[in-house]
Amino acid sequence: MDTPARVGAVARPDYETVPVPEARIAPPVRRTQTLRVATRLTAPSGGTILDFGQNLVGRPRLRVRGTAGTRVTIRHAEVLEDGELALRPLRNARAEASFVLSGGDDVLESRFSFYGFRYAQIDGLDVDDAEVEAVVLHTDLVRTGWFSSSHALLDRLHENVVWGMRGNFLSIPTDCPQRDERLGWTGDLQVFAPTASFLYDSAGFLTSWLRDLALEQERHDGVVPLVIPAALPSFAGGGPVAAWGDAATVVPSVLHDRFGDRAVLAAQYPSMRAWVEAVRRDAGESGLWAGHMQLGDWLDPAAPPDKPGKAKVDADIVATACFARSLRLVAEAASLLGHAADAELYHGLAERSRRAFVSEYVTPAGRMMSDAPTAYALALTFDLVDDPATRQALSDRLAALVREGGYRIGTGFVGTPLVADALTDGGHLAAAERLLLQTECPSWLYPVTMGATTVWERWDSMLPDGSVNPGEMTSFNHYALGAVADWLHRTVAGLAPAAPGYRRVRIAPRPLASLEHASARHETPYGETAVEWRREGDAVRITAVVPPNTTADVDLPGIPADGTTVPATVGSGTHHWTVVLPAAPPAPPLPGLEAPLAAVIDDPRAYAALLETLAESAPERVAAVRTDTVWGANRPLASALMFTPQDVLDRVDHAVRAATGAA
What we know:
This protein is an alpha+beta fold.
């Protein structure tokens, strides 16, 4: 039989392997909102800059009339530096739109571009503020999750997370929307997927992206490229990279957990399996994944601006921990899908890697070989250590490290989504609270105090003096570090799925001492579920809404105020409980310069007295004391003030004693 001749595209080599076009899975990108000009500014150079009050993704729209042939140029930036558009963070992106007027009534709006911006400078024509608006663009997802509290900065942080997701869920999940990049980095999405799945109905969007991921894997022998679509084929040498490639196993597992759709897990199972097999080939048969190129705990705040991968935690610890978790996720998926042989194989391999991790990186006394917060968070949240005593020792050491760091962030992209859970699960909720509500740099709330309206790529994308971080990668709209919002939903408010798709809900609020109230609500497949807690004197009033045809597991703090027993499980409906929490012990008086540094940082009165006295008497010492002091339990306050003049020491000693009632 003669073979029909092929002409055009079908005649090209490997045409048979090209995927067949199919119906859209993800919702389309749409204009979803418009914002008016908030403020008109005049730059030192004389240009007119319009501030829309919100860092957003989209484009300006102008309604103008001018002389035919007039050229109007719009330049965009996320922040200002010295009163001018800060364009250096855009790198090679021009972020500029140019229009030529017709002489009639014109509507100027880019059609084939989008920009990440809060500020726009318009040159070539004077435009009235009323004739300008910012058009917000993103994939048109349905909002499904909300959080609120009594803490204004915390609520702004959560709103920044929402805006960061809106700006970067634009056709694909990008890392940043403004510079010459806009790529679908797998590591960012891997850590943010739980938060995204709470805030918006992102099932179709992420399912579509996972299909792209699987197709790229087929071209790379099971290895997941760092970005999907794979626009950087040679970056990092093309080998598997931990935490980034683990999106292949983590994101499908998150989608099954949050939306209850086994079909997604079944469709992605070959991709999940291909990823861990690619890592097995790279790692060998020891169970460890070590000695290979890794990105590690990317953008650890201790890393130099020009070396973002130079983290405190050993990259091999990150790699082996992620390998063990992915093996376990594949085993669990295989078991759920009925692949019995695979389930047995990967459970065994996961256990081998877990044991290898403990043997190689965990000391018998409960210390990590990399004494850094991310190392402890990985060991605890990935359940790599199962001995209760060792787990507690690891948790206690993590809490000590967080305190020693002055309750400032000490983690990068990998550790940041895990550290609050690791502290909470080990009984250190107060440490997690201090870490969350810290406003000194680096912290989640520092950018909020600097006017941020989205989550930044770096903890210090803008330095305290208002200048832009000198690092090459300095985005002001990166959602990865906003993954902490999932902890806000699950732990602070206390709302989480207890079974896939919220068929069973978990109600387990953990009221923070600094908050008067907090709440979360989420639209599940069964209807809205919600948890709210509010302080009423010495008690906490908890209200929970359980959707129809579901049940809820209840785990409340404290003891019921009426002496009854809270049921472990409740059915659908609205439920109310009032509990009494243990009273915090009174802070003891501190002996001035002899006080342990740990006691000083843990007593807001003492810490404030220390810094205020230094600001008055030796202001040049304040920054160093804040950032360089190791707030250890066995170090006296005097050790942080070496070479300080005696008269200043005397003032500090008196101030700390007076503030804590020891004078």
